[in-house]
Amino acid sequence: MENRLKPMDAEQLREYGHKMVDFIADYYKTIENFPVLSQVEPGYLRNLLPDSAPNQPDSFQHVLDDIQAKILPGVTHWQSPNYFAYYPSNSSVAGFVGEMLSAGLNIVGFSWIASPAATELEMIVLDWLAKMLKLPEDFLSAGRGGGVIQGTASEAVLVVLLAARDKVLRRVGKDALEKLVVYASDQTHSSLQKACQMAGIHPENCRLLKATSSTNYALSPEFLSETISQDLTIGLIPFFLCATVGTTSSTAVDPLLSLGKIAKSNGMWFHVDAAYAGSACVCPEFRHYMDGVEVADSFNMNAHKWFLTNFDCSALWVKDRSALVQALSTNPEYLKNKITETMDGITTVWLGKPAMLYKKSYQVGQTF
């Protein structure tokens, strides 16, 4: 029993690691031969696997054989060059080699001291990416803003919605929650509605304004202004506007500058969701789709769309990180340490991000 349960040693890791790399390389070499959409019927796998976990370990080769025979038929091949659903294939050799290193180091980066390189590398790389996107300097970590990796754009919009909610409630009083109103077009990703539900915003106060072909399915500034005026008249509090650069249904782009001015004149948080098309804006010929981002409070794009980065890696930038810190931070005894206590308050918490903010360290070896 003792021999059977011995953990893998360094040499076995080297041997099996080579086999796994060969398996993945062979998969990519032949990926075009698979039907993109899985051809199995629902419940197919239960008939192929035992009812309970095995009592004895299996050979590594047998595991690979099982994957080939039982798992791959149930895979929809997102990385196939013939895949055209949802959004573009998102991986690369550099991406999954980076995943190997990240998994091997297995850093749990809930505070700066837990692994200084993980936190600092994340900040530096997001500054690089912000500069590639030509984001305003307000979004860089050298000032009051900065970037932080989320898992998905759904998490990003929830994080900034919570920050915006708490910011306005500190001003108008916590009992005003039922009066808070969120605005976006009806083309906005459904994650905004979910974020509203989690943040306690009343469903009837999530205004998804109809966008039509007359505006190429972008949100109309005139319609937005009219709706906000109506809400103000009945005593509601507009506090959050979400614009989109590249909607899921049609890749529509909202007029950021016009919408941002309306948000600012009404004291609202202005978030730009560029999860889908933001990657393309690195290219100079597409950067104009982000014109107006200078008036935004936060900006999000998915590196796992078009940037050859493994899912999930969603980049979020804010102009004022203190809003996120105040809304989401805790400071239990097990997160305290002498190093971060010597820093200023905002930097301390940003470098020692709580688990809700800090999703994973940047995968060294990935390229943009």
Approximate shape? globular
Order of helices and strands: HHHHEHEHEHEHEEEHHH
Assign the CATH class of the largest domain: Alpha Beta
Instruction: Output the strand order for the largest sheet.
Output: 1-7-6-5-4-2-3
CATH architecture identity of the largest domain: 3-Layer(aba) Sandwich
Strand content: 5-15%
Determine Rg (CA atoms, Å): 23 Å
What's the overall average pLDDT, rounded?
87
| Domain count | 2
Keywords: Decarboxylase, Lyase, Pyridoxal phosphate
GO cellular component, one term: cytoplasm
GO molecular function: carboxy-lyase activity; pyridoxal phosphate binding
Family: Belongs to the group II decarboxylase family.
Can you tag this structure with a few keywords?
36% helix, pyridoxal phosphate binding, alpha/beta, single chain, 368 residues, carboxy-lyase activity, globular, Aspartate Aminotransferase, domain 2, seven-stranded mixed sheet, PyrdxlP-dep_Trfase_major, Aromatic_deC
